[in-house]
Amino acid sequence: MSTPARPVHPLQNKTRGSAKRYEEAKQWMPGGVTANIKYFDPYPIFMESASGAYLYDVDGNDYIDYNLCYGALMLGHGNPQILEAVQKQFEQMGTPVLGTPHELELEMAKRLVELVPGVESVRFTNSGLEATMFALRLARAWSGKKKVAKFEGHYHGGYDQVLLNVRIRERKQGMPPYVCADSMGVSEEIRKQTVVLPFNDWATTEQILNQEVCSIGAVILEPVQAGFIPPDLDFLKNLREYTHHYGIPLIFDEVKTGFRVGLSGAQGRYGVTPDLTALGKVLGGGFPVGAVGGRREMMELASPLRSGDILSGERNQEGGSTLFHSGTYNGHPMILTAGLKTIQALEEKGAYQSVEDATMRLQKEMEMILKRNGFCGQAVGVGTIFNLVFSNKPVREAQDVLDSERTLRRKLDNFLLEKGIYIKPLNRFSLSSVHGPEAIAETLTRFEAGVKQLKKG
Ligand SMILES: Cc1ncc(COP(=O)(O)O)c(C=O)c1O
């Protein structure tokens, strides 16, 4: 008996060039991609160029981009001010990178201290991953305790200490999450050193923290889960009070929310200040970046004035110990130039309001289109990011997303890609300052066509 032919994926007819390149890429890179998150079925689309709110693929198709490099491009693609500033900076310096301290580091550090409430002192990194990794090391050095408490469904980058319980697994409400590694190679030792907490469920969180309070050296969370599930204010405040009371450093991972939900991040929006903050994405204006900021006395643990430089082997007279933090490209001048220009643009009057208004319009109208076509879907979000969840239950935590109709959402995403709306399937929608009324209207037309196709089945 012959096996039935696989149904043709909605994308396949218009993305033959991507399919061909993907077949080749598989021979040279594991799974044909250079980051696991970039894969989706049947194959990722190979893009060639971008402008404003649009991406263009190798087959000549256009897409309105709602991935925006996983939220990083708050000003959209090819912002002319950023481009000009970066070119000018290169010419002025005569090189892309000096490999020494320079004034742009100083300028950006001052801006972050001015804008982000919990930041009194700053270190730059090359990615969000490095920022959370450094923040965790600082926190544990400060508290002198080993265990890390993180939240179910929260992502902090792809390294051992936090690659646990990012994937959501079924669990009964009120039951503590079972600690599970999400990657091969994460050791049992690390699993044992990790405590996993349920977001927006203070009673269970407090119960778990009480059991482990003597050994927890850091609590880290995304203040807005996955960039779109808002925190209950009381939950955030309770967590802040608890960690303060027991001397456990609280880290806000604002890699997604920093400069997305406002210039002062989620901590400014909700009025809850952490001890340490990790930043990234928007801060780089489209270039790879990260930063850690926090309480001065904590940050000072990283000062080489305490004990010298471990690589040269020299020790200072005081002979104290230092918390090591370094990186060849930390504080890269081209990147900080792009970041400073981005902040400057976002400081213009009404800059956030107009993106938030566009986001709100899109959310409301998408919900209406779904309803008109007989689907029950919510556009859940904060500020300039939202996600579509097929359920009528309030979405307060990871489990609520797990319980939603994800298969339906996945099918819709395939149709949306085919209609020219670019999102990573099942992922968030992020907007930018160039998603103006025309792009939004065009998106809604394409969205309705996708929903109608979903209805047809
Ligand atoms: C909240 C959060 N933290 C950390 C990271 C890791 O940042 P990067 O990919 O720049 O290493 C991400 C990336 O998506 C993120 O969303």
Indicate the topology.
Layout: H1 16-28, E1 47-51, E2 54-57, E3 62-65, H2 68-71, H3 80-93, H4 103-115, E4 121-125, H5 128-143, E5 147-151, H6 188-192, E6 194-197, H7 202-212, E7 216-221, H8 233-245, E8 250-253, H9 265-270, E9 276-280, E10 290-294, H10 296-299, H11 333-346, H12 351-372, E11 378-382, E12 385-389, H13 398-402, H14 406-419, E13 421-422, E14 429-430, H15 437-456
Parallel strand pairs: 3-13, 5-6, 5-7, 7-8, 8-9
Antiparallel strand pairs: 1-2, 2-3, 4-10, 9-10, 11-12, 12-14
Bound molecules: pyridoxal-5'-phosphate.
Could you please describe the fold and organization of this structure?
With 457 residues, this protein is of the alpha/beta class. It has two domains: 16-76 and 349-456, Aspartate Aminotransferase, domain 1 (Alpha-Beta Complex), CATH 3.90.1150.10; 80-346, Aspartate Aminotransferase, domain 2, CATH 3.40.640.10. Helix content is 38%, strand content 13%. It contains 15 helices and 14 strands. The strands form three sheets. It has a seven-stranded mixed sheet with strand order 4-10-9-8-7-5-6, with helices on both faces. It has a four-stranded mixed sheet with strand order 1-2-3-13. The protein has a three-stranded antiparallel sheet with strand order 11-12-14. β11 (378-382) and β12 (385-389) form a beta hairpin. α3 (80-93) runs antiparallel to α11, α12 (351-372) packs parallel to α15 and α14 crosses α15. The longest helix is centred in the C-terminal third of the chain and has 22 residues, at 351-372. It is globular and about 70 Å long. The mean pLDDT is 95. It binds pyridoxal-5'-phosphate. Pyridoxal-5'-phosphate (PLP) is lined by residues 70, 127-129, 132, 155-157, 222, 253, 255-256, 280. Pyridoxal-5'-phosphate is lined by residues 70, 127-129, 132, 155-157, 222, 253, 255-256, 280.
